[in-house]
Amino acid sequence: MRIVSQGSDRGGIYNEDALGASGDAVWLLDGATSLGPSRMAGTSDAAWFAHFVSDWLVHTTGSVHERLSAAIEAARADYEALGSLPEAPWAMPSAGAALMRRDGEMLEVGLLGDVKVWLIAPDGAVTALLGGEVLEALDAAALERLVAIRAEQGPIGLKAARTQLDPLLRDNRSKMNTPGGYWVLSLDTASLAGMQVTRVPVADVHSVLMATDGFYDLWGAYGAPFPEVLERLNAGQGDALIRGLRDIERADPEGLRYPRFKPHDDASWVLSEI
């Protein structure tokens, strides 16, 4: 596998996305922004978790399940060295994750949360792997509530409205890794029970794009044509795409045209050629 294009642009104080690669694997993680105080000094729990797991994956082997399980166990030991796991379910560090490895003549892709993966065939046909639908539905409902709060209360800034949304977001976060809820990477290996694993022949795939929601908003929310984005990534124009993404967001800092939870999210991607 060869990395054609990769990048990660932080949206706030800390970059809570992380990406990496080893000889036979590529991955992308999107830490879930903490909804309370962070335990880790000098960073957020979300940034710590995503980057710890990413760094650990470099040293792992085996299936996607085995690699992530090893990373979770190491992260949990590091976290518990500073205290017990949080009692509130919403306070548990978590992250969306995509991990792809080559297993002989097969590709194995594991997905958790709303990190997304697109498989591009040799003839250019694109297949989006399913995943994250429950989490996306919860986020969409929360965004609708955010818009309603601002409509009900008149001129109110995004930050003030977002603060009022915290109880709902904590309730949604408490649904992680539960029956009927959504599945994301956490400090419990049981979270892997909900991982969606896809295996496809290497011969059927020319390249693979992984992206966090902060990046795929470029075409999912802001209207950039996906084929154009893919073409520009292949042409080495990832940084220019990020500049365009941030220009759109800076022109709508309060999220009135494009409702969102914060002015900027971390935006990351990895495009690999198989």
Helix/strand order: EEEHHEEEEHHHEEEHHHE
Radius of gyration: 18 Å
Class based on secondary structure composition and strand pairing: alpha+beta
| Total count of helical runs of at least 4 residues | 8
The residue ranges in which pLDDT falls below 50 over 5 or more consecutive positions are none
Fraction of helical residues: 25-40%
Number of domains: 1
Shape: globular
Main β-sheet description: 6 strands, antiparallel
CATH topology: Phosphatase 2c, domain 1
Task: Bin the strand percentage.
Answer: 15-25%
CATH homologous superfamily heading: PPM-type phosphatase domain
CATH class wording? Alpha Beta
The mean pLDDT is: 96
**Gap between N and C termini:** 5 Å
Count of DSSP strands: 11
Pfam family, one: PP2C_2
Protein name: PPM-type phosphatase domain-containing protein
Organism: Asticcacaulis excentricus (strain ATCC 15261 / DSM 4724 / KCTC 12464 / NCIMB 9791 / VKM B-1370 / CB 48)
InterPro entries: PPM-type-like_dom_sf, PPM-type_phosphatase-like_dom
Set out the fold topology.
Blueprint: E1 2-9, E2 17-21, E3 25-31, H1 45-57, H2 64-80, E4 94-103, E5 106-112, E6 116-120, E7 126-128, H3 133-153, H4 158-164, H5 166-173, E8 185-186, E9 196-201, E10 207-211, H6 213-220, H7 226-234, H8 238-250, E11 267-273
Antiparallel strand pairs: 1-11, 2-3, 3-4, 4-5, 4-8, 5-9, 6-7, 6-10, 10-11
